[in-house]
Amino acid sequence: MNPYVEIERRVQDAKSIPELAAALELLLSGGFAVWTDGSLYEVKQLVAQVNGLRIVVFSNEHAPPHFHVKSPDIDAVFAISDCSFIQGTIDSRSRKLVEWWYQRGRGTIVSAWNESRPSDCPVGPVT
Q1: Are 77 and 64 in contact, with CB atoms under 8 Å apart?
Q2: What's the CA angle centered on 6, arms 60 and 8, to 5 degrees?
Q3: Alpha-carbon 74 to chain mean position
Q4: CB neighbours of 53 closer than 8 A, spacing ≥ 6?
Q5: Between the CA of residue 33 and those of 19, 40, 89, what are the distances in Å?
Q6: Is residue 96 helix, strand or coil?
Q7: Does this model's pTM top 0.70?
Q8: Which residue has the higher pLDDT, 113 or 33?
Q9: pLDDT value for 41
Q10: Which of 52, 56, 54, 55 is nearest to 42 (CA)?
Q11: What span, in angstroms and rounded, lies between the C-alpha atoms of 2 and 115?
Q12: Which of 18, 41, 45, 103 can bridge 118 by disulfide, Cβ–Cβ 3.0-4.6 Å?
């Protein structure tokens, strides 16, 4: 289920202060924010996590569209358009593996980016 719809439902259906408090706790601890148009969005979207590796896109992000790869030994940023290395720390072997993975999974990364854009985000969708 869409997390925004679920949180909205929980707030509207709350019958007590503890139920409202539980929804607020979810908002405050879940990485949510309110965009300038009043819509709710997640500050970051975890695309994937396996053991200590995380692939993350942030909703309120600067250009160019990009994704983060983080693990105990990696903290790197790559462009969504072509997987070019933008910045960070990654060894050459791991970088080549990220590039190989990207070539096969680009569509999923693009979808995660596009689905995380708030309505008036200055960095729009990727095609």
Answers
A1: no
A2: 75
A3: 18
A4: 69, 70, 71, 74
A5: 20, 6, 29
A6: helix
A7: no
A8: 113
A9: 64
A10: 56
A11: 11
A12: 41
